[in-house]
Amino acid sequence: MTSSNDTQKGEPMRQLRWYVSNQQQDGEEVTQYQRNIVIDLMTEMYGGATLYSSIGFWTEDEGKLNAVPSAVFEVITDDAEWPSPNAATIADKIREITNQKAVMYTVVRINGGYANGEEEENE
Questions:
Q1: Three-state secondary-structure class, residue 114
Q2: CATH code for position 100
Q3: What is the tens place of the pLDDT at every residue in 71-105?
Q4: Where are the alpha helices (DSSP H) in the chain?
Q5: Which pLDDT score is estimated for 90?
Q6: What is the phi/psi pair of residue 64, to 5°?
Q7: Residues 40, 90: contact at Cβ < 8 Å?
Q8: Which segments of the chain have a pLDDT < 50?
Q9: Which of 47, 59, 64, 73 is deepest in the core (most CB within 10 A)?
């Protein structure tokens, strides 16, 4: 049987995501060095982060479809750690580091957990 310290289920947590274009305001690509600074910041503040490559799509008023390569930085943190640091403050730091006009972010309350890979005994 797995002890309660080995598997945590249903813990209140927050999932934070920041959406960042791969292109800076000046037209240059965001560099790996800039991404590493963001990852270091998140690791320092939250203990870790995940980086996803993505493509954002939207339609202009004229009906033209746009596709913009981007990155999604994600953190999952214990609810007890909220609200510090604030997601908007982090978005502003990411905006400065990656030279963006704006950085979109989302904060979602989730029930999450983790398992250590051992099977639990059915009761």
A1: strand
A2: 3.30.70.120
A3: 999 998 876 666 656 889 999 999 999 999 999 99
A4: 32-46, 87-97
A5: 92
A6: -75, 130
A7: no
A8: 1-7, 123
A9: 73
Report how many domains make up the chain.
1
Structural domain includes residue 43? yes
Under 8 Å between Cβ of 18 and 41: no
- 101 assigned to some structural domain: yes
Cα(21)–Cα(41) distance, rounded to whole angstroms?
18
- Across-strand partners of 109? 14
Cα–chain center distance at 84: 15
Residues 35 and 30: their CA atoms lie apart, in Å, by 7
Quick check: 116 and 4 in contact, CB under 8 A?
no
List 50's β-bridge partners, or say none: 74
